[in-house]
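Task 17 of the worksheet. Students: predict the tertiary structure of the chain below and write it out as structure tokens. Keep your answer in the requested format; marks are given for formatting as well as content.
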Amino acid sequence: MAQEIPLLKLNDGKSIPMIGYGTGTAWYKKDPNGPLDKDLVESIKTALKLGFTHLDGAEVYNTEPELGKAVKDSGVDRSKLFVTTKVITNIGDIPSAIDASLKKLQMDYVDLYLIHSPFFAKTDEDLQSAWSAMEDVLASGKARSIGVSNYLQQHFEATLKTAKTPPAINQTEFHPYLQRQGLLPYQASHGKIATAAYGPLTPITKGRPGPIDDLLAELAKKYYVSEGDILLRWCIDQDVVAVTTSGKEERMIEYLRVTTFKLTPKEVKLLGEKGAEKHVRLFWNHKFDKDDRS
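Model answer:
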């Protein structure tokens, strides 16, 4: 039986559930004015019914209306949920962007508001002015916490030069085949900036055959869970929030089994060491050299 989802305390004192249900990638809608995706609404409602409390959205996914409707229809108390959304399409006008997102979400605030990517910026000043606007959103109460997504060390260095409040978290692609080298230690030592992982299941969805296949099978057998659960737990046991998604109820139930066990430190280390033997990046490949693991 699934236990309560663990929480991670952020550098601003707020806490984030360590498993998030995502409403992007697989659910992405090309047309922002297209009809409501009823399948997504129902899937979010199912996730809420099963016990997910952390819902991850973004302006660019064009699925904020679905997220908002699902929450409203579910009857779950808004105060019991942790809702994330992100800005990039309207990064030039963050005050208007948050208002537009809140309207689509049918909410007065989000728990976490992220700059979706640093790659809009042509200069350090672009990053700094965007972060200043995010700090204004925080002060307004329209977001309880603010953070970033897809940031690398150079983007943090520029942002932190003028930041009054450090980002609470960086959501980035993270799994055993993309461990970001020195980025997590850098974040920890510069304001205790947490990490959230998207694409945490990459080794089994896009990375086979790979050097951790046998170890995943062995650990899944040991703990009576799926190989996907092992990958999610590998994140959680390193204090990394794991964001994933599915339209299948049985898969959602499976994901929640991560609350029933923990990997040993030795197992976490071994998955990392074996994972480092292979490099797979699914997102933003055009921004990186083939062998760049940052």
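Marker's comment: The radius of gyration is 18 Å. The chain has a mean pLDDT of 95.
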